[in-house]
Every structure is written in structure tokens, then in C-alpha cells.
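task queued by scheduler; priority normal; single chain, no ligands, no partner chains; default sampling; output format set to C-alpha cells
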Amino acid sequence: MELDPHELKKLMKEAIREELGASDCRIAKRWKDGLITLHSDNPTVQPKEIPMDAFFKKITSVREKLRVLEQKLNNHKSLTPEEKLEFQTLISRAYGSLTTFNILFEDEEDRFVGVKG
């Protein structure tokens, strides 16, 4: 079986994303192609518009980095179980801080979940 370079690149990307725990999550349809506009209370400051798709990619990038951090933490050999638990709690709280952005996700299973209780 011979793969063309495009197909090989596609397969490599899929393998890397799978290894890192990344997923192809989708932005909710109502936000697709939307804009976020930041307004300062200072009238001399120009508003800043950010494409919603770019903002969504940043949010999912943060999530992917948290997942990698979580994997490295869980596999770390020299941390004590207590230290791992402390760091895991901080990661869970970070996820919880990001739950505000759950409205952006099309699929519920892609949403952030923080500390429950």
C-alpha cells in the first residue's frame, strides 16, 4: 500500500491529535462566523473585534494543553500521590473556570467540566 504525501500528512496529524487527547470539536452553529467585540469604558480606545472561530480555537487549544499537562502529571515518576492530587485539583479548577465557554461547543461531550460537588 502506497500513500501519497497528503494522505500521510493527514494520518500523522490524526495520530498526533489522538495521542495528545485532542479532538475535532465543533463550534455551535449559532456562533459560527460570529464576532466577539471588546469595548473599553475609555472612549479613546478603539473596540477590538475577534472572529469567533479564532477565539474558539484558542479555547480548545487551552483545553488541549491542560490535557497534556494532566497526562504528564499522571505519568510523573517523582511526584508523590499527594502532590499529584494537589496539581490535579488545580487542573480541575482550571477546567471549572472555563465552563463559561461551554455555550460555544456544538457537542455536549466536548464541554468543560470542573470540580463536582
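post-processing summary
- Helices lie at 5-19, 52-75, 81-97.
- The longest helix spans residues 52-75.
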